[in-house]
Design a protein that fits this description.
Blueprint: E1 2-4, E2 16-20, E3 23-27, E4 33-34, E5 36-42, E6 48-55, E7 76-80, E8 83-90, E9 95-101, E10 112-114, E11 122-126, E12 129-137, E13 143-150, E14 162-165, E15 174-181, E16 184-191, E17 199-205, E18 213-214, E19 233-243, E20 249-257, E21 271-279, E22 285-287, E23 296-298, E24 312-314, H1 316-321, E25 328-329, E26 337-339, E27 343-346, E28 360-365, E29 371-379, E30 383-391, E31 394-403, E32 406-415, E33 418-426, E34 433-440, E35 444-451, E36 454-462, H2 468-471, E37 478-484, E38 494-503
Antiparallel strand pairs: 1-23, 2-3, 3-5, 4-25, 5-6, 7-8, 8-9, 9-10, 11-12, 12-13, 13-14, 15-16, 16-17, 17-18, 19-20, 20-21, 21-22, 24-38, 26-27, 27-38, 28-37, 29-34, 29-38, 30-31, 30-37, 31-32, 32-33, 34-35, 35-36
Length: about 500
């Protein structure tokens, strides 16, 4: 069948997948956002829907005052003897840990820590043994993959960590996964950095510890040699293999969509892509279309007609059914959010979007270039509005500010060290509600606000200043409603109603 990539759109990087009970399950990185590690389910590897998160309690992960793009790095999900395991890293504190669940729809356990350094941890089970691997640096300073055996009940190491592979020579060796197919063990990893040189490589050996022989045609999957006019999909890497019940093999991986042929910027974040895997008679595999991933690909897979996951036309009422998609910055303080029949009320705190902390923030990942977000704001919060947010140093805000019984409509940009109020308009004293609207395409955001009965254009900004190429980091744009309340007066609320949100339409 013909599929459209990405299969999960927007900021959902570092995919890992497993199969259990006739279905497929996928997890992705979440960095500073809470709840942590989004969890997806699929019947066919093509159509996915989010069913929850793995880290839903503060006791499972500490995200307090971590910088953007810190926190929860690449997870791996595995299913073994009736139990799901999700292993990941809190990179801010350099701690590898895993949680487990017997019911994929229920809560996950408290974290179990493993005393092995590195990031991108993974698990492999065989013959009653649990193997734990992560990346690291060898004695010569070069990147390598380390592996040990652990007691899966406690996380205690049962063996010393051993160096098992140094990759194919690319920089930033990471994302190791170990598999067994037939008589061979396959160790797959990512190299080149999660940017334009990103690639997937692999090796194989006769035991879980190798020695491993690299695939002669590494990398097995990459778009590093494709320019924008050849493909808008770049950064292909960080993959995981999965077999269906018939033994067909597929690969999920991350990549990103650039704005256009000659605009190599991406602000939607790293997304999830699907490619087919083909085996030769000697037990080596190839992936994708001549080792690349395209936006439209023909894959031999039995699946329902694909629904393009990034296209939305929703309201608050519809979002109640999909509340699992909301996210917060670093912490969730229940008392700050009051959901009503028509919207949500935010009780702000003293933290702003510029702070490395936990402001009152309710966000949804931007998943398409073409986006329209409109909401009605009322209340007496000192500051409240909507933001297109990449990090504490890069965000565009459209807000209503209440000060000395007067309200004003403000468009404000934060681009690195540059902070600017683009436009400020005094609102009529009698105006109780204000409509805020943002419309975007691949290159620009345009901001609109209501003053009296008139809706006016307040300004525009380039999307590239919220891109990883300009701002750095590993996340993507999140559209959020927020409120600021320096005195934390619980009576000063911001009420958001009449949400209309369209993407890709």
């Amino acid at each position: 069948m013909k599929i459209q990539n990405p299969i999960i759109r927007g900021f959902y990087p570092d995919p890992s997948v497993c199969r259990a009970n006739g279905k497929y399950y996928m997890v992705c990185s979440s960095f500073e956002y809470f709840p942590g590690v989004p969890l997806f389910e699929s019947d066919d590897l093509v159509n996915w829907h989010q069913i929850g998160h793995c880290l839903t309690k503060a006791s499972q992960v500490d995200l307090r005052q971590i910088n953007s793009s810190g926190g929860v790095f690449a997870p791996t999900i595995r299913y073994h003897e009736g139990r799901f395991y999700m292993v990941t890293t809190n990179d801010t504190y350099h701690k590898n840990f895993y949680v487990y669940a017997d019911d994929i729809y229920g809560e996950w356990s408290e974290p179990i820590f493993v005393e092995q350094d590195g990031i991108d941890p993974s698990l492999f089970f065989e013959d009653g043994k649990a193997y734990f691997m992560s990346n690291g640096s060898a004695s010569d300073g070069k990147g390598c993959i380390f592996q040990c055996e652990i007691d899966i009940a406690t996380g205690k190491r049962l063996t010393e960590s051993r160096q098992v592979w140094q990759g194919s020579g690319g920089r930033y060796l990471e994302s190791p996964h170990l598999y067994r197919f037939g008589d061979w063990y396959y160790l797959m990893a990512a190299e080149g950095g999660t940017e334009y040189g990103h690639m997937i490589t692999y090796a194989r050996g006769k035991s879980p510890y190798g020695p491993f022989e690299g695939y002669a045609q590494n990398p097995v999957l990459t778009n590093r040699n494709l320019g924008g006019h050849q493909s808008h999909i770049q950064g292909i890497g960080h993959g995981d293999l999965i077999q269906d019940e018939k033994g067909n093999t597929y690969m999920v991986c991350l990549g990103f969509r650039i704005q256009s042929d000659w605009m190599p910027y991406h602000h939607l974040g790293r997304e999830v892509f699907l490619a087919s895997v083909h085996w030769d008679e000697k037990g080596w595999f190839q992936a994708g279309i001549e080792g690349t991933v395209m936006q439209e690909m023909r894959i031999d897979i039995c699946a329902k007609e694909q629904e393009i996951a990034g296209k939305y036309d929703v309201t608050f009422e519809k979002m109640k059914k999909e509340s699992v998609r909301w996210c917060h910055l670093r912490e969730y303080r229940q008392e700050s959010y009051q959901f009503t029949d028509t919207g949500v009320k935010l009780c702000g705190n003293s933290f702003t979007l510029d702070d490395v902390d936990a402001p009152a923030f309710l966000g949804i990942r931007q998943s398409e270039f073409d986006t329209e977000l409109e909401v009605t704001l009322s209340g007496e919060a000192p500051e409240a509005g909507i933001t297109f947010y990449l990090s504490e140093d890069h965000h565009y805000d459209l807000a209503v500010i209440c000060k000395n019984s007067q309200k004003s409509l403000v468009l404000r940009f934060r681009i690195g060290d540059a902070k600017m109020v683009v436009k400020e308009i005094e609102l009529p004293v009698t105006q109780e509600k204000t409509t805020l609207k943002v419309v975007s395409d691949a290159a620009h955001y345009t901001f609109y606000g209501q003053c009296g009965e008139e809706q006016m254009e307040l300004g525009s900004a380039r999307t590239k200043y919220l891109s990883s190429e300009v701002a750095g980091g590993f996340t993507g744009v999140v559209m959020g409603m927020y409120a600021v309340n320096p005195q934390e007066d619980k009576g000063l609320l911001a009420e958001f109603t009449d949400l209309q949100w369209k993407q890709g339409i």
